[in-house]
Design brief:
The complex is a heterotrimer of chains A (210), B (500) and C (366). Chain A is 72% helix and 0% strand. Chain A is mainly alpha-helical. Chain B is mainly α and 500 residues long. Chain B contains 19 helices and two strands. Chain B starts with 13 loop residues before the first helix and ends in a 14-residue tail after the last helix. Chain C is mainly α and 366 residues long. The chains are: A mainly alpha (210), B mainly alpha (500), C mainly alpha (366). The interface between A and B is large, with 37 and 56 residues.
Chain lengths: 210, 500, 366
């Protein structure tokens, strides 16, 4: 609607916030601060997407990353009530020296690429009757036409990831839990730490295996 | 948007559909019949995998360069051949899995389901015609295998292995994804054939960006095939994971990643005659790959010399084998890599299967010294293991020799300026003979350990072993059939139109 | 920067509308609080606040003054920065959502536009050309998603407040609340998918426009009647849970957790901000319910007198706000496990079923 240089100012502001917050993520010792800084990074990235007229991606960035993923991060950190990062032992001292060098190398690489890129975007091939770029409609159309198969394949991926995380997260299998319950009943004394029945359960397992 | 151009050819994704559906059904079987699941699940997954095999064979006459699903799926000989190997690996692993799950008293349902989903991901990698599909397939198979590596939840080593695999796997996936993003930015398309067209036409928008993108992708793929210098996760993960899972990790996903690797690099970026940046890119990646191959072989073999744990030894040997396989890329044809992967998969699966059977519950006995003197106690295990070891070392009548020979010969012929690599590889194979022979020596010429009991062998495991042994010998003695299949050229090498 | 009159007029108009919505947002807690206390009192056969002003109307204002002048205590053990920052995080996203409230249609004739123009000209010498206005601040392509995005930020305020207070009650309240909000956000969003399938757009104003008119002359084309009744109920229930209101007000269950995440916030302005954010969030979910399911500003004679639109709209919103109070006076609080079971094992599957039904209808009906 308006050609304003203010857009560049906003972009610079958002980008600066993103970078500053990203540094904070790794520099903060308190995990809660790190997580909160990461949320700010996500929101700032949403801002840059907005400046690129990718409105849908911007809102999704906020809903999915800042609104859903990070909530779980913060939730878990709070639940464990980790106050400060546990002191770690640096087993390999020289890595501390190597890391900045690698960082500088990567930075140089990025600058190398960035310098080669012109600021005017190459014209996109359009057929003329597509919905406007970055809108929900255009993304929806792409998702259900050219990217139909990846879209469906992603559902398989997510289903499997869900099942997989459950497999790893559950403490005992149902059959194990049932046997454990029986063993506790047999021992006659309900106890908070079922160390004895667990040992018996292991024995049972060996029997099954044998 | 041209909706007519999508080419929704459901027949061409039949293998993927069968395995994905089978995964879902396996979970339902587990949910609704706890008792029968233990027997029913392996049978059903075998059935599904054989059906997948049949569907791949049925697709063979339709092999062509025409891509379906808007260029996402390519149904050419490369895809079909690698899909065949992947499904064969899946069948052998399934045969072995039932005994593993029974011995360890682990819940069966999810394991088979995860294996099915992993196979789906691997098949997607083989059939991917687009970087998006490569990544999705890679993630699908990786996440399934992360979970499988930690499937023995009570075992700390398995947990470590799973976590390490997950962290480093995600890290490498990030590299791959970043590379893909940069490549997309540089060329304006994610379609592999489209990238090739753009390179040939010399229409790369940002050549520098493409260089960095390709380098990142190389790193990502390098991680996934565990070649040096991106191999550091391999020994720990292979050692900690349950041996059966190690067998799966070392074969199926590797075969699939090689398929995708070939598709992206040998096909998409294999443009030695393209103008300007196209040829430069080709030069760069082929040289980088040569160095990676040389380091991988040398490092894998030399470190393997010092290993006293069978699984670690096999892990380093698999790094070395990854290096050998990379030599096949010099030809920019898929036949050498494909044949090497076939032989490697067969002998690896066989070797790991025997290690698993000898290791007992909880992988207690995986040191090579545990094998002392068992040679004549359990000849049905020790002789096959000897065969696989000799095959891996590349001793003539076995498949491993033919694989190496074919790769080295084609590389020697096709790229005269990289012949040093072949020489390095031959020296390496000679070094490797030492550590491959070591377990054989221990098995047959050391005094037996006292507390050795014969391991149980279920009929399914016996069948799996038989398949691997016969395969190893067959492809060593009569490789022509497989090579003829491999050298089939997809008819009418007509390239797909650039999308968008 | 080219400054022309068009853009000045545009920005001033937008700013004016934002200010109006901001004032509505600021005042709604005051009014709502009075209504809530009085209505609740009558439901429980009490009188409620009736001393300050006529019918106790000034009670909320008096409370506000008290908040402003009380000593501002920061607990010694609290994490000071997050403790102070949390109310800000609560209020800002809550007010950000107000800019997409679709109070009325586009391009409504401004009454007495010509006389305003000439009046301003005679006063300042600036020639305005006011003629029409949109009865909403902005209508953009991802309107609904924008609301979901900014309201999803609100959970951090509760989490931060609960954690920074460094008190068991607050932490438990914060944890409960975040778990609850994450759980019910799923069914809330999924309930909206049915509407989106039917409307074919995510723009709130367009969704309301789709619901104008009637079937057979008397059934309004509101989505609550046509095809989305199930979605409406799922939305309603999850919205109540999202805003932590009875019967889902476990995060601040007085009997167990004193005050939940805001236990340590003494009645200062910070507490007032948390309080205000809660009411603005209630307003937002009510606005969404109105716009998505009850036809927004639609009603009799709107097409002839467009200025009726905001009146209808606010009436419908008030209806929902009253429903909140009504429920609070009627229903007991759920137990925590009941809440989670209900959310994950009942509401979520039903919401998925609703999507399935909507998609099937969409397949055959359009």
């Amino acid at each position: 609607m308006f050609e304003l240089p203010i857009q560049q100012l906003i972009f610079l502001f958002v980008a600066a916030v993103a970078v500053f917050a990203a540094f904070n993520v790794i520099l903060q010792r308190n995990p809660i601060y790190s997580a909160l800084a990461l949320i700010i990074t996500m929101c700032a990235l949403a801002g840059t997407f907005l400046m690129l007229e990718a409105q849908f991606v911007a809102t999704m960035q906020v809903i999915v990353y800042a609104g859903a993923v990070m909530v779980l991060f913060v939730f878990v950190i709070m639940l464990l009530n980790v106050r400060t990062e546990e002191a770690r032992q640096d087993r390999v001292k020289y890595l501390k020296l190597v890391a900045p060098l690698l960082f500088i190398a990567l930075l140089g690489e990025v600058i190398f690429v960035a310098r080669s890129v012109t600021t005017t975007a190459p014209p996109l091939a359009t057929t003329g009757n597509e919905p406007a770029f970055g809108t929900v409609e255009s993304i929806g159309e792409a998702m259900f036409s050219s990217y139909l198969f990846p879209f469906e394949a992603t559902s398989v991926l997510i289903l499997m990831a869900m099942v997989g995380s459950l497999v790893l997260a559950r403490r005992r299998t149902m059959s194990e839990a049932e046997t454990l319950g029986k063993l506790i009943e047999e021992s006659g004394k309900p106890q908070l730490t079922p160390a004895e029945p667990v040992a018996k359960l292991e024995e049972k397992k060996e029997e099954i295996a044998a | 948007m041209q909706f007519s151009n999508l080419n929704l050819d459901y027949f061409s994704i039949l293998p993927e559909i069968i395995t994905a559906l089978a995964g879902v059904i396996l979970m339902l079987i587990d949910a609704f019949s706890k008792k029968a699941g233990r027997k029913l699940s392996p049978m059903f997954s075998l059935f599904a995998l054989v059906a997948t095999l049949a569907s791949i064979i049925a697709l063979w006459p339709r092999a062509s360069y025409t891509a379906s699903f808007a260029g996402m799926i390519v149904n050419d000989h490369l895809r079909l051949y690698f899909a065949l190997v992947i499904v064969a690996c899946g069948i052998i692993a399934t045969l072995l899995a039932s005994q593993f799950l029974d011995d360890e008293a682990l819940p069966p349902g999810e394991f088979y389901a995860l294996m099915m989903f992993a196979t789906t991901g691997m098949l997607m990698m083989a059939s991917a015609g687009d970087l998006v599909m490569v990544f999705l397939g890679l993630e699908t198979s990786s996440i399934a295998t992360y979970v499988m590596a930690g499937y023995r939840r009570t075992d700390l080593r398995a947990n470590e292995s799973s976590l390490k695999y997950f962290l480093l796997g995600s890290f490498s996936a990030a590299f791959l994804l970043y590379g893909m993003a940069l490549t997309y930015g540089a060329t304006g398309t994610t379609n592999i054939e489209g990238i090739r067209q753009i390179l040939i036409a010399g229409k790369v928008i940002y050549p520098q960006m493409l260089l960095v993108g390709v380098a990142m992708m190389l790193v990502g793929f390098g991680f996934k095939i565990a070649t040096a210098p991106f191999h550091l996760w391999t020994p720990d993960v292979y050692e900690g994971a349950p041996t059966l899972v190690t067998a799966i990790l070392a074969t199926g996903p590797k075969v699939a990643v090689f398929a995708a690797f070939l598709r992206v690099f040998a096909e998409g970026l294999g443009t030695p005659t393209a103008p300007a940046v196209g040829a430069q890119i080709y030069d760069n990646w082929i040289n980088a790959l040569a160095v990676m191959a040389a380091i991988g072989m040398t490092f894998g073999n030399i470190v393997a010399l010092a290993q006293r744990n069978m699984k670690r030894m096999l892990a380093y040997s698999s790094i070395a084998h990854g290096g050998y396989t990379l030599i096949g890329f010099l030809t920019t044809e898929y036949a050498p890599v494909g044949f090497y992967m076939l032989t490697y998969a067969l002998m690896s699966l066989g070797a790991f299967a025997i290690v698993q059977m000898l290791a007992r519950e909880g992988d207690a006995k995986t040191e090579i010294s545990d094998y002392a003197g068992i040679g004549f106690e359990v000849p049905n295990l020790s002789f096959p293991l000897a065969i696989f070891m000799l095959s891996m070392a590349g001793i003539p009548p076995m498949a491993g020799f033919m694989g190496k020979f074919y790769v080295f010969k084609s590389a020697w012929v096709s790229s005269p300026n990289l012949r040093w690599l072949v020489i390095v590889a031959i020296i390496n194979s000679i070094i490797s003979v030492y550590y491959y022979l070591y377990p054989i020596v221990v098995m047959f010429f050391r005094p037996p350990v006292s507390d050795f009991t014969k391991p149980r062998l279920s009929p399914m495991s016996q069948l799996a072993l038989a398949i691997t042994i016969i395969g190893t010998l067959y492809f060593g003695l009569f490789p022509n059939g497989a090579l003829k299949v491999l050298q089939q050229k997809t008819p009418g090498a007509q390239q797909v139109a650039v999308q968008k | 920067m080219p400054i022309d009159q068009q853009s000045i007029q545009f920005f001033v108009g937008i700013l004016l509308k934002i200010v109006i919505l901001f004032v509505i947002g600021l005042l709604s807690p005051v009014g709502m609080n009075w209504v809530e206390r009085r209505a609740l009192a009558f439901m429980q056969m009490r009188l409620g606040p009736n001393r300050t002003g006529p019918f106790g109307l000034l009670q909320s204002l008096a409370d506000g003054i008290k908040f402003a002048f009380k000593e501002d205590v920061v607990p010694l053990a609290a994490n000071k920065w997050l403790y102070i920052f949390a109310p800000v995080v609560a209020v800002v996203p809550a007010f950000m959502a107000t800019i997409v409230y679709p109070l009325g249609p586009k391009g409504v004739d401004i009454p007495f536009a010509a006389s305003i123009n000439s009046f301003v000209y005679s006063l300042t010498g600036i020639q305005l050309n006011l003629s029409t206005m949109d009865l909403h601040v902005t209508s953009f392509n991802v309107g609904l998603l924008y609301v979901l995005a900014v309201t999803s930020m609100g959970v951090y305020a509760i989490v931060m407040a609960g954690w920074a207070s460094n008190s068991k009650f607050s932490l438990l309240g914060g944890l409960r609340s975040s778990a609850q909000m994450v759980s019910y956000e799923l069914s809330l969003s999924l309930a909206l998918v049915g509407v989106l399938i039917q409307a074919g757009t995510v723009d709130l104003v367009k969704i309301v426009e789709m619901q104008q008119g009637t079937y057979f002359g008397f059934i309004p084309k509101w989505y609550v009647f046509v095809f989305q009744p199930l979605g409406f109920f799922i939305y309603l229930i999850s919205a109540i849970a999202e805003t932590n209101r009875t019967p889902f007000d476990l995060p601040e269950a007085e009997t167990e957790l004193v005050g939940g995440f805001h236990t340590e916030y003494s009645s200062s302005l910070k507490f007032a901000m948390l309080f205000m954010a809660e009411y603005v969030n209630m307003l937002t979910v009510s606005v969404l319910a109105t716009a998505l399911f009850l036809g927004g500003w639609s009603g009799p004679f709107v097409s002839q007198f467009p200025l009726l639109a905001p009146v209808y709209f606010l009436l419908k919103v008030t209806l929902f706000m009253f429903l909140y109070i009504w429920l609070r006076g009627t229903l007991p609080r759920l137990r925590y496990d009941q809440l989670m079971n209900f959310g994950w094992k009942f509401l979520l599957p039903v919401a998925l079923l609703n999507i399935f039904i909507s998609a099937t209808i969409a397949l055959f009906a359009y």
